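Q: what does this look like with S-adenosylmethionine bound?
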Amino acid sequence: MNIYLDSYPSFGSDDCEALRILLRQVIRPSCRVLEIGSWLGTGSTRVIIEELLVIPDAKLYCVDTWMGSPNVARHLAIAEEYDVVATFRHNVNIAGGSGIVRQLIMNSDDAADIIGSDTFDLVFIDGDHSYEQTRNDIKIWRPKVRSGGILCGHDCECRPHGALRERILSAVNSDSITGVGTSFSAIHPGVILAVDEAFGGSAHLWSEDVMQRSDGTTGRATIWDVVISK
Ligand SMILES: C[S@@+](CC[C@H](N)C(=O)[O-])C[C@H]1O[C@@H](n2cnc3c(N)ncnc32)[C@H](O)[C@@H]1O
């Protein structure tokens, strides 16, 4: 099987910037970062590697089945035709991250079972975006973040309130639906609902602030984050 070399845009420049800012709040020598959902290693994984490369003894744990999310047809088609695990390793190599990345080829639940509490400075959730799995990921990974560390994730475009609420509640098993009524072309109902139920207003949504880009244009990231206190 070949590796997948076409582009796969999954993590926009505003999301990259938001994730970098969060990482810089918590990373330190010997820090530990974990992400659930690394896919090809060209999106969030690359950002985290770039930030950790300058930190002594930093490690990034990447948890993924590398089978694609069950509700994303494009994932399943790529996973069927290409060697996604080898693609990930290839891209980690190119980013210079082979020495810091620990690859855990398993599902999120199995990984959480073998990892102790208070282990990570930052956990980034970007796995299966259905409501049930996102809710579960928040529940099982929250205790793994040290006090003062950050639990965060991708694809939370808004809160499930107002006119959008019915549409969000009726599509919580879908990966995404059209973003009519928001600043985004698509939104992720399962993530939006799970984050709101877990944290309510304590979750910081980057989508609620306009980000100024270096080229003068503006945009919005879809990262959510919570600082864990114990
Ligand atoms: C949205 S993609 C991740 C995108 C990646 N973070 C990026 O920036 O390009 C979701 C990933 O989650 C993985 N995944 C889906 N369900 C999972 C589960 N239960 N446990 C672990 N990984 C899972 C899929 O294989 C896929 O690689």
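Residues 13-224 form a domain with the Rossmann fold fold (CATH 3.40.50.150). The longest strand covers residues 145-153.
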